Amino acid sequence: xxxxxxxxxLQEAQARGFIFQATDLAALDExxxxxxxxxxxxxxxxxxxxxxxxxxQLMLLRLMRKHHHTPVALLGGGTARIGDPSFREEARKLMTxxxxxxxxxxxxxxxxxxxxxxxxxxxxPLIANNADWLxxxxxxxxxxxxxxHFSISRMLSFDSVKSRLERExxxxxxxxxxxxxxxxxxxxxxxxxxxxxQMGGSDQWGNIxxxxxxxxxxxxxxxxxxxxPLLTTSSGSKMGKTAQGAVWLSEERLPVFDYWQxxxxxxxxxxxxxxxxxxxxxxxxxxRLGSLPGAEINEAKKILATEATALCHGREKxxxxxxTAIEEFEKGHTGHHSSLPVKEIETSALExxxxxxxxxxxxAMTTSNAEARRLIRGGGMRLxxxxxxxxxxxxxxKDFVEGQLKLSLGKKRHILVRLxx
Length: 421
What we know:
L-tyrosine binds at residues 40, 178, 182. It is an enzyme of class 6 (ligase). With 421 residues, this protein is α/β, with parallel strands linked by helices. It has 3 domains: 8-228, Rossmann fold (3-Layer(aba) Sandwich), CATH 3.40.50; 255-330, Tyrosyl-Transfer RNA Synthetase; 342-419, RNA-binding S4 domain (Structural Genomics Hypothetical 15.5 Kd Protein In mrcA-pckA Intergenic Region, Chain A), CATH 3.10.290. The chain contains 18 helices and 15 strands. A hairpin with a 2-residue loop joins β11 (381-383) and β12 (386-387). The chain starts with 7 loop residues before the first helix and ends with a strand.
């Protein structure tokens, strides 16, 4: 039976599909009706950019701000030194302090763009780093303080732990401590900033519940946990993963046009759901667009792509990506003013004819010659929208029109290759 919610934040979160589990949804609803609260989500710096898989969490924080609650992004500068084992097949590789710092700077840019931009009104978002307190901990003091409140048998019962223990890789003691540190984070944020809600993906449920329980035991207070579903597409593939790799939020990792194209290629059955989750369009408009018949659904996909890209990269770049797509794919133009990503190569590289597979590698469309050969054999490469059948096909100056050619890999990746002046 669906809980009848009264607080505007939870009402909209439920209507848009953000709510999967909650420790006490009725009590959280009541607390939000009494006045604004603070809620946080943690982001570990496992790379120098977040990817689309983090967008649900970022949109939840934006939604909190819209409804006048304070969103808090917690950077995992401390927990990154352990690595979250939740549902992973093997332990994460430990990172150096320099790598962690570089990654923190990268994901901070993503978070600032998503939380501080746009037309959102409400409390100013907060950003914290758990290294500020975790790096100061004494191991013996930590054991005395919180160790007594954690049951090994209960921790072993979490699905995220059981899934690892069932594999031959096992679970290291280092990783086993992750849940304790995440719980400590929640208590620290509760004590110092009166943060009473932790949110995250459903893979974080066990860790979140542990934090709620720790605060109940040590502070005698009720706080709340809420998870969003881990998304897959209608065809069953993991959200944010493509044949070319992760869909990064940083423009340095993935060109804006490619980001726009990712959303434009949404499966028909996912359009309504993704409009609700990844744009801030009114719910009725999401329903209308998602129910457009036949080929008209492509117009809804353009709106989804443009709105999602505007949140991540700004409205101007999103509109430019839309204009490029219309120009490139609907009108068939590839003019010098196209906003497709550009790669420049030396004229001398083409004097004796450059094999097609080497062009892919030279322009960084692939990471190796072997990968380039495999993709061409699979029919994935096109030059000026013409399929390349032979991986050894010689690319010469004659293939360039006014000093450039359009190079495509699959349906989503497109660049202009230009000759260096």
